[in-house]
Amino acid sequence: MLQKISRAANGLLNGAIAVSLASMALLVFGNVVLRYAFNSGITWSEEMSRFLFVWMVFFGAIAALKDKMHLGVDLVVNLLPKTLKRIVFVISNLCVLFILWLLLDGSWKMTVLNMDSIAPATGISLSWVYGIGLVTSLAMAAIIITNMVKVLFAKDKDDSFKLIAAVDDVSVEQKEIREG
């Protein structure tokens, strides 16, 4: 059941990233063609592309966390015994949860503050732009909590302690997902 939800969420996340990127490319390319070929343009294209870029970057941060692809140095952690690895993993993830709480709190305040502010070209409420911080912090917190539960209740799984994944680990994991 959880794997189905995870796959659906992963598909939704990848779809949102792809739609954001494709929309940005179409808007910018279309605007360039209109400017040079017809001496006109789409007035809201640049602003909407900027908003889509912000959302795409935040969605990408969620995807990177899910795949353990954020930058990290695990040289010392890999040398630790299993019990200490577990302790370091939990402490580091609690620190990340605290940072995500700060992101959630700040995003909430900015979203509420800008609810009545309207973007000049698109007419979209700026709360939609700042709201991505809410989505990101909640999604990342769910990923972190899930990883912590797996580590705390897993039996003899050394790879679950990893804070970051090597490129080889990710390619093997993606191959298993495609086949399974």
Automatic annotation (TrEMBL):
InterPro entries: DctQ, TRAP_DctQ. It is a multi-pass membrane protein. Residues 24-152 form the Tripartite ATP-independent periplasmic transporters DctQ component domain. Its main location: membrane. The chain crosses the membrane at residues 12-36, 48-65, 86-104, 124-145. The keyword Cell wall biogenesis/degradation does not apply. Keywords: Cell inner membrane, Cell membrane, Membrane, Transmembrane, Transmembrane helix, Transport. Coiled coil: none annotated. Pfam families: DctQ. It comes from the Bacteria. It is found in: Cell inner membrane. Belongs to the TRAP transporter small permease family. This is TRAP transporter small permease. It comes from Fictibacillus fluitans.
